[in-house]
Design brief:
Layout (H helix, E strand, L loop, with lengths): L1 H14 L5 E9 L2 E11 L5 E7 L6 E5 L2 E6 L4 E6 L20 E11 L2 E10 L6 E7 L5 E7 L5 E12 L13 H6 L3 E3 L5 E5 L4 E3 L7 E10 L5 E8 L4 E8 L9 E4 L2 E8 L2 E8 L2 H9 L1 E3 L2
Parallel strand pairs: 6-12
Antiparallel strand pairs: 1-2, 1-11, 2-3, 3-4, 4-5, 5-6, 7-8, 8-9, 9-10, 10-11, 13-15, 14-21, 15-16, 16-17, 17-20, 18-19, 19-20
Length: about 300
Amino acid sequence: MPQHALGLLKKIADSSKQVNYSGTFIYQHGNKVETSRIVHFVNQVGGIFERLETLDGPAREVIRANDHVTCYLPDSKTVLIERRSTRHMPVMLPENLSDLNNHYDVAIQKSDRISGFECTWVSATPKDKLRYGRRFCAEAETSLPLRAQIVNERNQTVESFGFSQLAIGGSFNRDQVNSRYANRAKAQRWRVDQSALNVQDQAADTGWVMKSAPPGFHKTLEVKRTIIGRSDTVAHLVYSDGLAAISVFIEPMTRGAVLKPLTYQGAVQIYNRQIGDYKVTALGEAPAATVMRIANSLELKK
């Protein structure tokens, strides 16, 4: 059964790179609830095109073409342009799930019906208090996640996603992923912010090491981040157990800066501390103790 459950998680991870769909979903994190409409297409050569529009609160539209992301903010008449790896909806699973059984009990749960589609629940329950649990309901034919939940150590849902309306399939339609604001932004000369394109990441030895990583967490990324026009670089490291991921950013401490030690946004815990002349920020969807342990275990190589 664990291998069957791991196989289903792998299909969920792959589904957003293989399935065309459109619909409306509700995303809840902490006390915030957001409703959005999404159109998502995958073409034959592997390109991913997506249009996401918020339906409540301040208007926001995000257009994705692979790693090219354009965000339109009509209230402030601003266009943000950046490049980043595509996160498909709020649900994201890594491709390598083979080691999950070491730290999670992965199991197939009951069948269900969501937004008119049959689906099967699969859960990853942590074997310790260092990580959150996760549950997904995979659509029967495509394994597209119709609902997903992150559960904390007290078995409380701290983040959830679910479709309220969904259509699966259909052929690529360029008009459906074109921006409704692009012409207006051009005609009215909205402010275009491309500062994020000035950020360059390069794989490198940052000089930072971890003395005592939480069990199961391994370094999966280490880069030096350079911002054009700034002399200082930012170290970015990522530690993951195959499901949870903790990002750490290390940069020179600003004189007179006051740090908020621990805050959170939904399932994401954010911890700041000072190490010598550096500010360390660790954040991720994991219990506060885990995020703090990673940040507190970092030191410069001697």
